[in-house]
Amino acid sequence: MSTTQARPIRVIVVDDSALIRKLLARILDQAPDIEVVDTAADPYDAREKIKQHDPDVLTLDVEMPKMDGITFLRNLMRLRPMPVVMVSSLTEAGADVTLQALELGAVDFVTKPGTDVAHAMEAYADALIEKIRTASRIRVQARSAPAEAPAQVTPPAATAGGGRRFRTTDRVIALGASTGGTEALKEVLMGLPPDAPGIVITQHIPAGFSQAFAERMDRSTALRVKEAEDGDVVMPGHVFVAPGTDYHLRLERDGARYVCRLDDQGPVNRHRPSVDVLFESAAQSAGSNTMAALLTGMGDDGARGLLALREAGAHTIAQDEATSLVWGMPGEAVERGAAVQVLPLGRIAEALLDDHRDTSRAGANGGDTP
């Protein structure tokens, strides 16, 4: 009897450390649908082995001899684009270089522990395997869709009792993302003016990387961006990014102001920070004064919270499939009916601003909006 089996995901591991190469290969080979076809100690070795094996995914060390990982990645994306998962050190320099790699087209990253490497890497074997599986499904050459792609719009959610909700001009923007999110968030923030409503963000990112991400966004946009601290007042023109891994970010009403609250309660949807935690707190504290967007990401974190926001009268947006690196989180939100609009990434900032202008005009005229 003959059986047909799909070809396994073919991976090449590139790292100057023989120990890391061995550990990564051992972890990935545990998965029945993944095959490490070779390893390479430097970019020149990797170049030849890519030609030889034509892999589906590459893991790439940030810091290597002969040619650094960024230079190699830049050349690779120009000559032979393919899904790349970066392997980064948990340092400030490692975080900044990793974010640069994501700008150049790397699809995701894992962090290399500083001590007890073997035990620590085995601890996140499942996450690493899932990242490789997800990366293998990403078409790197088709990461963007034309800005003029048609928007899908669904009717506003019915409110309890069918009544109309009053909206004030005291607005807040809540954004959530995961895989592919650092670049997606950058595009949204770059499309917003320096007097935009205050913004709170949860991006799935390790501790130590969120501050580097915030600093990078602060340099790249017209907004003031910082890693959130407990008690930060959410003000127009300011962006607050949830600290990676250690804390959830919540939005809380404090008199006439919104403030950031951090807590170290357990993971939600396997994540801390969790987008659901942020969105659900915004639904409770700001309700219909919230504008929210759920961007690219693996899994379903944020879908339940986006639905809670829509049910509270907020304007909710999900990034469309064509422009999402991974249409997991926003796709789940669309499936649940949580999104008022489903938009390509390039139109999300404009949609947020349009909703804010419409509400501001209604407020100035003493009216209310549904």
Automatic annotation (TrEMBL):
Keyword Transmembrane helix: no
Segment forming the signal sequence: none
Chemical reaction(s) catalysed: L-glutaminyl-[protein] + H2O = L-glutamyl-[protein] + NH4(+); [protein]-L-glutamate 5-O-methyl ester + H2O = L-glutamyl-[protein] + methanol + H(+)
Alphabetical GO biological process terms: chemotaxis
Modification 4-aspartylphosphate, positions: D61
Source organism, top-level taxon: Bacteria
Location of the protein in the cell: Cytoplasm
UniProt note: domains: Contains a C-terminal catalytic domain, and an N-terminal region which modulates catalytic activity.
Family membership noted in the UniProt record: Belongs to the CheB family.
The protein's name in its UniProt record: Protein-glutamate methylesterase/protein-glutamine glutaminase
Name of encoding gene: cheB
